[in-house]
Automatic annotation (TrEMBL):
Domain Response regulatory per the UniProt entry, residue ranges: 3-119
Coiled coil: none
Annotated protein name in UniProt: Two component transcriptional regulator, LuxR family
Pfam families attached to this UniProt entry: GerE (PF00196), Response_reg (PF00072)
GO-annotated molecular function: DNA binding
UniProtKB keywords: DNA-binding, Phosphoprotein, Transcription, Transcription regulation
Protein's GO biological process: phosphorelay signal transduction system; regulation of DNA-templated transcription
Modified residues (4-aspartylphosphate): D54
InterPro entries tied to this protein: CheY-like_superfamily, NreC/VraR/RcsB-like_REC, Sig_transdc_resp-reg_C-effctor, Sig_transdc_resp-reg_receiver, Tscrpt_reg_LuxR_C, WalR-like
SMART domains associated with the record: HTH_LUXR, REC
Length: 212
């Protein structure tokens, strides 16, 4: 059972997301919060696996709350949901340590799948978000780095696949290896590159100029 909390300052949205996620047998909504500070307190009390967090909230916004949650409760993964398809939110969320970023116009099925993926350790970005990230790094003309030289060829392939937003299952299918092997390769990539999580790995690969 995956334990989930939801934070949003709009009561209808908050109740709607909680109802959608709470109706799924393998998800347990253990609490809701109307602002970022309440979210931080809620996570401290309930130790959820996933926090679904709105960006624009009073008292403490979703990005600042994510920074607190990730730093103080590393066992909780954050999925950012917002109505604003703006690049600064994507970058701020990634830098803050979020494990996923989706717009609020996603279907109920997609939201549930996103929570499951994030809980399983995958990183999730909407297709449009990933495309814009790649385009932005290409536009900035990032100089290729040697930071990935420590990786084996297979680890390099896995790192690139992670940076494309693939889940462990999708990587396993694409590379014809088992999911357990994928998890091992991802762990080695994180260790060798000094990355805290998959999000930092994605940023590292993008900044190395290796994904086009």
């Amino acid at each position: 059972m995956t334990r989930v909390v939801v934070a949003d300052d709009q009561p209808v949205v908050l109740q709607g997301f909680a109802a959608i996620l709470g109706s799924v047998p393998d998800l347990d909504v253990v609490g809701t919060a109307p602002d970022g500070r309440a979210l931080v307190d809620l996570v401290a009390r309930t130790a959820p696996d996933v926090a679904v967090v709105d960006v624009r909230m009073p008292v403490l916004d979703g990005i600042a709350a994510t920074v607190r949650v990730v730093a103080e409760h590393p066992g909780t993964r954050v999925l950012i949901l917002t109505t604003f398809d703006l690049d600064e939110y994507v970058y701020d969320a990634l830098r803050a340590g979020a494990s996923g970023f989706l717009l609020k116009d996603v279907t109920a099925e997609r939201l549930v799948d996103a929570v499951r993926l994030v809980a399983d350790g995958s990183m999730l970005l909407g297709a449009n978000v990933t495309r814009r990230l790649v385009e932005d790094f290409a536009r900035r003309g990032r100089v290729p780095s040697t930071t990935l030289d420590a990786l084996t060829p297979r680890e390099h392939d896995v790192a690139l696949a992670v940076a494309r937003g693939l889940s462990n299952g999708e990587i396993a299918a694409e590379l014809f290896i088992g999911e357990a092997t994928v998890k091992t390769h991802v762990s080695e990539c994180l260790r060798k590159l000094g990355c805290r999580d998959r999000v930092q790995l994605v940023v590292t690969v993008h900044e190395a100029g290796l994904l086009h």
